[in-house]
Design goal:
The complex is a heterodimer of chains A (298) and B (317). Chain A is an all-alpha fold. Chain A contains 15 helices and no strands. In chain B, a hairpin with a 5-residue loop joins β1 and β2. Classes of the chains: A mainly alpha (298), B mainly alpha (317).
Chain lengths: 298, 317
């Protein structure tokens, strides 16, 4: 395309386009940048609106208070536990179901697929599901966090599509002629060939658990089982910082309390979100791949 | 396969019938593979569907769902006649509609523009930046809203005061609920939503672009006459899905953004179901409202799919 001379109109288009895209990127970045600098600035300066581009009177007070609070560490620990157990369960259920459904010689695949896909369009809803989980005795246990939402139809479709397109039927036939069983074929050949899709699904599930709060909100009452996001909600949205004794013990006046509370909020956003945001650029291509595989069938 | 002689004494090949039993027996292990997942779907998806009958019953905890007495459509009539009914419908519909009007077309426009960036590296950079907010949790997003919009210390109100305005109590104002919901949604999800369109745009044949350039088309004309028709099928399918989900608005963000003061705008059907069902434990009434919502969703999806198919576009099935 180099051979063609760019017209004046196209030049203008490019200038405007670059400007717009840069502006958009800045609009996404600035709030995150502002939170970062506010979390290490003097709360009085932030409160007065003096922090714009650079941190002012750098202090780590907010982080010291956050890290001295046990509740947050408990939340972190719970989230990691739920993410690990939940992801393992989800991956196991998803892959073992998706593989047979990808096999053209699997009798009944359409019926089973219909059973799965139907739930995408109609569901029992919140209340019957809640009562079921309650009747199963899962309320206030880790199981409520990892089982009721373990499987997503979308993930099954993604995995099934992957198996269909990247495990050739000839490979299977050759293995069977050599006397390989279905089970052995799945564990020795299919799974090792499916590392990319497993990586994608692990990432999506881990992010889902890391960011999820709804299940915890409805199924957990015991504070010691709360995942990070629920604790975050109490601090960021419900404004319960001042109730947290460990964080605010030594702050005397009400005004000072409010300022420190704001500082803690900025710090909390960083502490809870940045592990993901820092890892994400390195894993970006896996995430994007996941969206693409999912959309082939869509 | 078997070789047989037909009436004219010619040899014909007849495939041996594989019986259903044989087909199943040959892959018996695969059925064991599917079993756990199938059981999960039956227990966690189909049992709750069976539990929908709660909507037509008067739930008595000691009797359970099955033992509670039937009361017909009482819960539905109670809901339709309640004073919140029209507010809820209005809030749910207008919130979804506003969210849809902005969050559907904006990613398409952004993807078309991104696709025109001449520097591949800069394009990658912008993509990396704009995908990032997708990984921020709803809780943190709403937390950021509260912190930024705080009337005393928030950066937004500092700006307003700087330009001589009065601080606005954003989170306490019903009229601000919808704009904030939509804007924060755009900030968080626009970038991520471009992925599919960018993939579709990558599939548009370069030959078409070259031909258009030969014919003297400028960039605008190429976007309009080459790119947009090229991603039309993708747009249509995502449109069907989006409209089908229009009443399926996310509970989480609306619930978190809800304050006592903005409730007249932020009370939507899902938050109401949560409030009635789980906070006040009126299970059967809440189940009825939830059912009402799911049925509307289903009807919307079927309707849109049918209309699109009539118009000769692609359809979901």
């Amino acid at each position: 395309m180099r051979a063609f001379r760019r017209t004046k109109g196209d030049m203008t288009f490019d200038v405007v386009n670059y400007g717009l895209m840069t502006l958009y990127a800045l609009m996404v970045l600035y709030p995150l940048y502002f939170i970062s600098i506010s979390s290490i600035s003097d709360p009085n300066a932030v409160f007065a609106g003096e922090v714009w581009l650079w941190p002012k009177d750098i202090t780590l007070e907010g982080y010291e208070r956050i890290f001295s609070d046990t509740l947050i560490w408990v939340g972190y620990g719970n989230t990691i536990l739920y993410a690990a157990v939940g992801t393992a369960i989800s991956i196991m259920l998803t892959l073992t179901a998706a593989y047979p459904l990808s096999r053209p010689d699997f009798y009944g695949r359409n019926l089973i697929m219909l059973v799965f896909v139907f739930t995408m369009f109609f569901s029992g809803g919140l209340i019957p599901t809640y009562l079921l989980v309650k009747d199963l005795g899962m309320v206030d246990t880790i199981w409520a966090m990892v089982i009721p939402n373990a499987v997503g139809v979308w993930n099954i479709i993604i995995a099934k599509t992957f198996f269909e397109t990247s495990i050739p039927g000839e490979l299977r036939e050759a293995a069977f002629i050599d006397g390989c069983s279905n089970t052995r074929f799945f564990f020795k050949i299919v799974l090792p060939l499916s590392k990319p899709i497993i990586a994608v699904m692990v990432l999506f599930h881990v992010v889902g658990h890391w960011n999820g709060f709804f299940d915890a909100l409805i199924y957990l009452n015991d504070e010691s089982k709360y995942p990070l996001q629920l604790i975050l909600r109490n601090i960021l949205v419900e404004n319960q910082v001042s109730n947290s004794a460990a964080m605010m013990m030594d702050v005397e006046s009400y005004a000072a309390k409010q300022r420190v509370a704001e500082l803690i909020k900025y710090g909390m956003i960083i502490v809870s979100t940045f592990p993901l945001l820092i890892l994400y650029p390195f894993l970006q291509r896996y995430f994007v791949k996941g969206v693409m595989i999912g959309s082939i069938k869509g | 396969m078997e070789l047989l002689l037909n009436k004219e004494k010619q040899v014909v090949v007849v495939p041996r019938k594989t019986t259903r039993r044989k087909k199943i027996m040959r892959n018996w292990e695969l059925y064991l593979f599917v079993l756990p997942c199938l059981l999960w779907f039956i227990v966690f998806k189909y049992v709750p569907m069976y539990g929908i009958q709660l909507a037509f019953k008067q739930y008595i905890p000691t009797e359970g769902i099955w033992g509670s007495p039937w009361i017909g459509f009482q819960h539905f009539t109670r809901f339709f006649e309640s004073y919140q009914f029209w507010t809820l419908i209005k809030n749910t519909l207008s919130l979804s509609l506003w969210a849809f009007i902005f969050t559907f077309p904006v990613p398409i426009i952004v993807a078309l523009l991104l696709n025109q960036l001449t520097s591949e590296r800069y394009k990658k950079f912008v993509q990396t930046v704009i995908y990032a907010p997708h990984f921020i949790s709803t809780v943190v997003l709403v937390g950021i809203l509260f912190v930024f919009l705080s009337p005393t210390s928030g950066i937004v109100n500092h700006l307003i005061v700087l330009f001589g305005g009065e601080p606005i109590l954003f989170m306490a104002r019903p009229e601000w609920f919808k704009p904030l919901y939509v804007i924060s949604g755009l900030w968080q999800e626009t970038g991520w939503a471009t992925i599919i369109y960018l993939a579709a745009l990558a599939g548009v044949s370069p030959a078409l672009h070259e031909a258009a350039i030969m014919d003297g088309a400028n960039k605008w004309q190429r976007i309009w006459h080459v790119d947009i028709p090229g991603i039309r099928p993708t747009i249509v399918i995502l449109l069907i899905l989006a409209i089908g989900n229009i009443m399926n608005i996310g509970f989480e963000k609306a619930y978190l953004m809800q304050t006592d003061l903005n409730k007249s705008a932020s009370a939507i059907i899902p938050t109401y179901v949560y409030e009635i069902g789980l906070q006040r434990a009126q299970y059967s009434f809440a189940a009825a409202i939830g059912l009402f919502n799911s049925v509307i969703n289903l009807i919307m999806l079927l309707l849109v799919n049918r209309i699109v198919r009539k118009l000769g576009g692609n359809s979901l099935w």
